[in-house]
Design a protein that fits this description.
By secondary structure, the chain is of the alpha/beta class. Helix content is 41%, strand content 22%. Bound molecules: S-adenosylmethionine.
Length: 286
């Protein structure tokens, strides 16, 4: 079959739910990933023919996209901080906002050449922990998650990116204390309230793990409280905490951090102008 005809089928089947540009972009990602073809191939050779087997990959992918599966799950991979990460239904797809959180940490530690200890709480695919270990090699990174299957994938991602990260299965809501003292704690914990479900896209709701996203309406800060509590014991003096936050709850997170003796609290906005990240320093431990 001609590749250009498959592109037409993609448009016929997907244009109802996605813009033409999005469909083009998904089609090109699919041919790059499954067929090893460059995206400009159709410009060079408009009549390129693909094999039956290749056709099958393209149609299987199309049927997943039609069901609303995010392209990253269909490909089984994504890019974060210019690094490749495998993803599957047991982990959240790493978001660009989270890259900004990692960049904040990297900015702050760029001139540190001592051996820093950092922990990533709720690591999912391992994107935060692995990027930090890759981009700042003198950092010792620990990463924890409650999900066995997420940790399995995160370990594979560490191998893929050739870094050493200590992964541990821990429920942060029940954990006694962190096993050592850290210079920084980073976390992108679940923070979407159940009441916000209807603001979210169906393909997120139907495909991404809800335990990675949602918190109960009556206790939306439960992860921030647990992390702040751990941080009082688990951070070195003047240790720093960096967390991604729900834009609607930033004032509440600030109040909570003050209650737990944090100071120098700073907020940062994401590319969409929403308060999305918070940083705070642990004041002298009392
Ligand atoms: C919002 S996702 C973040 C994943 C990844 N760090 C990222 O930024 O893409 C939150 C993660 O917290 C984990 N998690 C949920 N409840 C947890 C708990 N009680 N203890 C530890 N991790 C938990 C989920 O499995 C999920 O991987």
């Amino acid at each position: 079959m001609l590749l250009k005809d498959i592109k037409e089928v993609y448009h016929r089947e997907l244009d109802e739910n996605y813009s033409r540009e999005e469909v083009d972009s998904m089609f090109y990602l699919m041919i790059e990933h499954f067929l090893g073809l460059e995206r400009f191939i159709l410009a060079i050779d408009p009549n390129i023919v693909i094999t039956k087997e290749e056709e099958q990959y393209m149609f299987e992918g199309l049927s997943k996209l039609k069901k609303g599966q995010p392209i990253q799950y269909v490909l089984g991979e994504t890019t974060f901080m210019n690094l490749k990460f495998m993803v599957n239904a047991s982990v959240l797809i790493p978001r660009p906002e989270t890259e900004e959180l990692v960049n904040w940490v990297l900015e702050d530690i760029k001139n540190r050449d001592d051996d820093l200890e950092i922990i990533d709480i709720g690591t999912g695919s391992g994107c935060i922990a692995i990027s930090l270990a890759k981009l700042k090699p003198n950092v010792n990174v620990t990463a924890i998650d409650i999900s066995k299957s997420a940790l399995e994938l995160a370990k594979k991602n560490a191998l893929l990116n050739e870094v050493n990260v200590q992964f541990r299965e821990v429920d942060i809501l029940k954990a006694g204390s962190l096993s050592k003292k850290y210079d920084s704690i980073i976390s992108n914990p679940p923070y979407v309230r159940e009441m916000e479900r209807d603001k979210m896209h169906n393909n997120v709701l139907q495909n991404e793990p809800s335990a990675a996203l949602f918190v109960p309406d009556e206790e939306p800060l439960l992860f921030y409280r647990a992390i702040a509590k751990q941080a009082r014991e688990g951070l070195k003096e003047n240790g720093v905490i960096y967390m991604e936050i729900n834009q609607y709850l930033c004032e509440d997170v600030k109040i909570l951090l003050k209650e737990f003796n944090f100071s120098e609290i700073q907020l940062r906005k994401d590319i969409f102008g929403n308060d999305r990240m918070i940083k705070a320093k642990l004041s002298l431990v009392n």
